[in-house]
Design goal:
Blueprint (H helix, E strand, L loop, with lengths): L5 E5 L6 H10 L4 E6 L13 E4 L5 H8 L4 E4 L9 H11 L3 E3 L19 H16 L4 E6 L2 E2 L4 H4 L8 E5 L6 E4 L1 H12 L2 H4 L2 E4 L3 E3 L1 H10 L7 E5 L1 H13 L5 H13 L12 H4 L6 H13 L1
Parallel strand pairs: 1-2, 1-4, 2-3, 4-5, 5-6, 6-10, 7-9, 8-12
Antiparallel strand pairs: 9-11
Helix pairs in contact: 1-6, 2-3, 3-4, 9-10
Length: 302
């Protein structure tokens, strides 16, 4: 039976990558190597990881760094997703058994999202992984779909800014969506690497909690944020149309990207809510309401 011992991580100092590295180390199950283009980043990493400097434009450089690695976990930032192309080829060439590409977020297996331009780089990398599996059966992949991110920071602000008491309520505010903490995404990585057969060549769908915008506002009010709310209202169908119009006109701003994302995770039936999740398989516990309240309280108080 294939087991994973040596794990390489890309994007290890980012918001997703850092908890992944920490969880890999605390599990005591893996030897962790971090690939980075900037060797000075090693000062930002735990002492018990191996750091290898690489050139992401060179398959040879990446392949050399990946020799002897059983798994590759990518936490590359949104704007760098396309750089995983060389990583996939290098991983296959180096004999990596499992790759987790950076496809965190909404369920991109939902055909409705395939037309969204912001997701094309992620979809292209997954399709490349699928192709390489057919050519090299010893290679495999898993993607992690967690819908919305959740923490007492910009991730909550994107949905409802409880500190400044502002929100744009989409589709009435009662559409159920999944939200996931960085720690639970890291646990999903552990779960994948210890359940290779069950997670091979497919996405896993996870969440810490299922919630709505209106529930988040209600909890904030329970915690004392009762007055002074500035709420606007929009329909995600209109946001989608406006996003496509502006994108076609050359506007690829964060505002337009946010319109696509909001349609993807709040639009009912668009991939932001998972009726079936892989939480139990991966060792992820459902968040209690008091834990959600603690996150919202931390966001209010920051």
């Amino acid at each position: 039976m294939t087991t994973i011992k040596n794990v390489a991580v890309v994007g290890a100092t980012g918001k997703i990558g850092r908890p992944i590295v920490e969880r890999l180390l605390t599990s005591k199950l893996f030897n962790v190597t971090v690939l980075t283009r900037d060797d000075s980043r090693k000062r930002d990493l735990p002492a018990d990881v191996t750091v290898k400097q690489v050139d992401y434009n060179s398959i040879d450089s990446l392949q050399s760094a990946l020799e002897g690695q059983d798994a590759l976990v990518s936490a590359m930032a949104f704007e760098a997703i396309h750089e995983q192309k060389n990583l996939v080829d290098a991983a296959v060439n180096a004999g990596v058994k499992r790759m987790i590409p950076s496809e965190y977020g909404n369920d991109l297996m939902n055909p409705k999202l395939a037309a969204f331009p912001i997701y094309q780089p992620k979809i292209a990398i997954r399709q490349q992984c699928e192709k390489r599996v057919t050519e090299n059966p010893s290679f495999s992949w898993t993607t992690i779909h967690n819908a919305s991110f959740l923490g007492p920071d910009w991730t909550l602000d994107f949905i409802v800014d409880v500190k400044n008491r502002t929100a744009d309520i989409k589709d009435g505010g009662d559409v159920l969506f999944c939200a996931t903490t960085y720690d639970d995404i890291a646990q999903a990585v552990i779960g994948i690497l210890t359940h290779l057969e069950e997670t091979a060549n497919r996405p896993v769908r996870i969440s810490s909690v299922n919630t709505t915008q209106n529930e988040l506002i209600a909890i904030a009010k329970e915690l004392g944020a009762t007055d002074g709310w500035n709420l606007t209202y929009s329909e995600t169908e209109n946001l989608e149309s406006e996003a496509f119009r502006r994108w076609a006109a050359g506007d690829h701003s964060e505002e337009v990207i946010a319109m696509f994302i909001n349609r993807a995770f709040i639009g009912k039936g668009w991939g932001g809510y998972f009726p079936v999740r892989d939480n139990e398989l991966l060792g992820i516990k459902d968040m209690e309401r008091d834990e959600l309240k603690s996150i919202i309280k931390a966001a209010i108080d920051r």
